[in-house]
Amino acid sequence: MDALVQKLDIKLRQWQPDIAEQVRQSVLEIIELADQDALDILRSRVVEQQVLDLIDEP
Length: 58
Fold this sequence. Notes:
Helix 1 runs antiparallel to helix 2 (17-35). The model has no long low-confidence stretch (mean pLDDT 88). This protein has one domain. By secondary structure, the protein is an all-alpha fold. The chain has 3 helices and no strands. The chain is 76% helix and 0% strand.
C-alpha cells in the first residue's frame, strides 16, 4: 500500500492541476463507496464498453 500511496503522490505532483484534482475526487468517491460496501454496484468501464460494442454490431 505504501508503494501505491507513493506512486499516487508522485503522479499528483506531475499531472496538470485540473487532472490531479479530478483524480483526487475520484479516489475520494471510491473510498466513500468502499466504506459503504457499495463498490459492487458500480459498472466497470470495460463492461460498459463491451455493452456499447455489442449495440454497435450490425
